[in-house]
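G., before I forget:
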Amino acid sequence: MLDIRRRLLDKSALITSFVAPFLLASILGLAFGNSQSSGVMTIGIAFSNPNSYVRNLSNAGLASASLPALIKVDKNLTVANLEHEVKLNKISAGVILDGSLGSPSNIESLVNDVNGLLSATFVHPNDTKVNIGIDVVSGSSSLAGQVAQGIAASILGRIYNGILVATVVSSNRTGYSATIPKSEQTKTFFRIAESSAITPLPFILKNDNFGTGRNVIGYFAPSMAVVFLFIGAGLGARSIVQERGEGTLARLAASPVKSGAIVFGKMASIIVMSLVSVFLLWGETVLIFGASWGDPTGVIAMCVATTLAMCGLSIFLTSLAKTEQQAFNASVIVGFVLALIGGNFFPPGSLPPFMQTLSLFTPNGWALVGFGRLSQEGLGFTGILGPIEVLGSIALVFVVASLFRIGRVIEL
Amino acid sequence: MTSVLTTKNLVKRYGDRLAVDGISFEIQRGECYGLLGPNGAGKTTTISMACGLLARDNGEVYINGIPLTHRSIETKKYIGYVPQDLALYPEISVSDNLRFFGKLYGLVGEDLEKRVDQTLEIVGLKDRKKDKVASFSGGMKRRANIAAGLLHKPSLLVLDEPTVGVDPQSRNAILEAVSVLGDEGMAILYTTHYMEEAERLCDRIGIVDLGKIVEEGTKEELVEKVGTKDRIRIGIRNNYELAVKILKEKEPSASLELGNNFIGVSTENAPSKLPDLAGILVSNGVEISSLVVVEPNLEAVFLKLTGKELRD
Ligand SMILES: Nc1ncnc2c1ncn2[C@@H]1O[C@H](COP(=O)(O)OP(=O)(O)OP(=O)(O)O)[C@@H](O)[C@H]1O
Ligand SMILES: [Mg+2]
């Protein structure tokens, strides 16, 4: 109790636990939210050697790609135009599709060609430009480049999907009959392909609602909460180091209270404060911005798991510190590094693939996966069992490690 | 009657350094026992082991006859520990600090409030009870620090150099409070490197050096054991050799200490011989700059036992 009161008296703790996450979530939310709805990013698409079948096919693929609101697609460009506009920064990035995909006059070679070439798409969706004749023209913004690549992969995925279906269907139904002209076979083939290409495939920015403002805060609020959970818990744990310096820890050790109880009390007060701060932020963003964090049961479960994991890690790190200053640095610097690696400062899915993998080495990365599934994909409790399991394990390891570590600190 | 505190053969090593090397002593009810020693002698280390704050490498501790292990809470409630360094939460009021520590000792409700008031009264901080500890002067902080150790009426009060860096007024208040508590029957373990405090407060004194108790007893016993005689100190301006020669002739039994510009003479009844000796020296042309009678005291004992001045 006294610990909690001390922290309430400590202004820096108040700011990190309650004010900062709210402010940052609002700022990021408003920044990304508003600009996105007006469509900040334009991606251009152009065809080299356009061939009407391919153009129609890719249009069909594009139409079903369910692009997020922030991305506008300009399809009516020549290759030279596209490259010029990207250079002028009028377009953030572009995709160049090879329109002479296969030869429409020779259906066998087309199908063989396509199958051979496109099989690579699924292996390396972002390397498609090499294999399949798609060029991504990237502008100055690497984020846009990523998005362009993503769109390219998505469109190709659809084209491939369509061609695959068409291939199976046409070889079953017609075979390559000599009685039907090749050009008719090709037409049929592409008709089937076009209609199949509309089948939606997952796109890296999965949620079409991302960017309506409401959900942006629903995403950034827990995201910021996670960062400040870590920093806040670190500052809370700093009081243990501080108390060693102040000598009150010795006085606690001299009192007839089990050291386990003292350690438990310290950790509990930090975790309770952290939980309160997360739930407060949830309440604030819902009331003030009408944000939605997603399914309430899921949010509560994620909040608890995340708090335990972030607090455990943070308290453990801090308890290793020898001085208060060290403790402060540990929590703030490590906190921001973790946030950067974990992707807390970016919209979901906007990191390059290796960064997305890297982020899963951080507890906050997993927290984002969980919160993202709740707020962006609308999944319920069962959808976040994976992240909860990972966070729970992290929490268990570090909470136990901290208990031992602080126990040792107290016994001088 | 069992002693309030018994320590037997306490040992603590830090790496190669033996910080405490086989310390044993006992403290009875109402007795004030002083550990007197220079910096780094091992006083704080000894106290930490006696209070169960520090795991010992060897030895035993009994509080009111009950063995103390460093995790035991049964015995800890009999101890009131006042650390050498200030140990209070600076950003809350002194009475809130006391309430918090009181609760750790199982004090609650009206009992707690009463004890908070009483202890603040004892250390003379009653009119500042609502003030934050951070706003206190050094001396007041020290007194508040002591109050926190007194709250639960311990049978043993352990004070680790409670008057270091304290103004004379606060210091007096502290010493006064401690001696009153002793009179009320509390056993007190007091460490200091102020000789006057040990002389004034402590019924018995252990002189600690290099992790050992080199001598123990009442002030009188210590002075006796060391056998320090009265000593006079004669400051000499010129004819130093001549003066030494005269003193050796006149007082063959005395031991002489030859300083740079003084001669120390230790002998029975030295003060009464002083006028005579001075007269003879002067009449032989020795110029005397000063005459001092040094009564035997702890300082002399200490110097003799450890070869060190107590204060740097
Ligand atoms: N945590 C520690 N690690 C290593 N050595 C220590 C530690 N604590 C104390 N010592 C050493 O043990 C010896 C005794 O220290 P202690 O603090 O008991 O002395 P003290 O008599 O209380 O001195 P002072 O009058 O300065 O308070 C010293 O040499 C000190 O350097
Ligand atoms: Mg000491």
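The first strand of chain A starts at residue 41 and ends at 48. The two ends of chain A are 23 Å apart (CA to CA).

More on Monday.
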